[in-house]
Amino acid sequence: MTRTGILLANTGTPDAPTPAAVRRYLAEFLSDPRIIETSRWLWWPVLHGVILRVRPRRSAALYARTWQEQGSPLRYHTVNLARALEDRLIAEGHEVLVRPAMRYGSGSISDALHELRHEGCGPIVVLPLFPQSCGATTASIADAVNAATMALRNPPTITFISDYHDHEAHLAALVGRIRSSWERRGRPEHLILSFHGIPQSYADAGDTYRDRCADTAALIAAGLDLTPQEWTLSFQSRFGPAQWLTPYTVDVLARLAPQGLSRVDVVCPGFAVDCLETVDEIGREAARHYKEHGGGDFYYIPALNASAEHAAALAEVLRPYL
Question: Is residue 292's pLDDT more than 70?
Answer without folding.
Answer: yes
